[in-house]
Amino acid sequence: xxxxxxxxxxxxxxxxxxxxxxxxxxxxxxxxxxxxxxxxxxxxxxxxxxxxxxxxxxxxxxxxxxxxxxxxxxxxxxxxxxxxxxxxxxxxxxxxxxxxxxxxxxxxxxxxxxxxxxxxxxxxxxxxxxxxxxxxxxxxxxxxxxxxxxxxxxxxxxxxxxxxxxxxxxxxxxxxxxxxxxxxxxxxxxxxxxxxxxxxxxxxxxxxxxxxxxxxxxxxxxxxxxxxxxxxxxxxxxxxxxxxxxxxxxxxxxxxxxxxxxxxxxxx
Length: 268
Known about the structure:
The chain is α/β, with parallel strands linked by helices.
């Protein structure tokens, strides 16, 4: 015959408390698991959402490219640039800051009158990654209002200041019906490289569908441009404003942008 010891009430209480405390971590794990399950779709959605990029270049099967100039300071060489492009019968795209428009409205008009595109580059060259969507919209519209008042045309393209952007910047800009534009060939003319270095950087990197970055008021850009233009034209390139280089239509429907920033048509 086996005898079973009945635990004293005090000992039974200790055992009960131990089981109770051991049950708490398990309950917490269950709660965490439940929270994860209920929120999992949002995590999956965020991780699988395709990131939108600005256009760095365009898929083209023939030799065409676009030259672009950021205008945020100085206008001492604006007319010189216009004269150079007139000589070669080339039209380009200028991305101008609203405050630059305020200082040099005559330069904005001269660019537009010469047939060049004048597009937005923000109102005061702020860091757009730090702005809310509403602030981005207000900033871009302020700049575009100034440009439209002088040129009679409202900008349809935008280049983020400093080339900085994140997902909310790009989706906000594109949500305005404006296409964000970067570049795939950087002249680095703002570093005051000599004309030969600027020329070599551009001519060694350009390809069909390229967008080249220059700056107005850069020290040696006017000196480098004739050699660059003669090289491009001699190689059979058609140089067009960016709005003529990029593909028409709606993002995701008519075109997409690959991981390198190349705009590509959506295949039927």
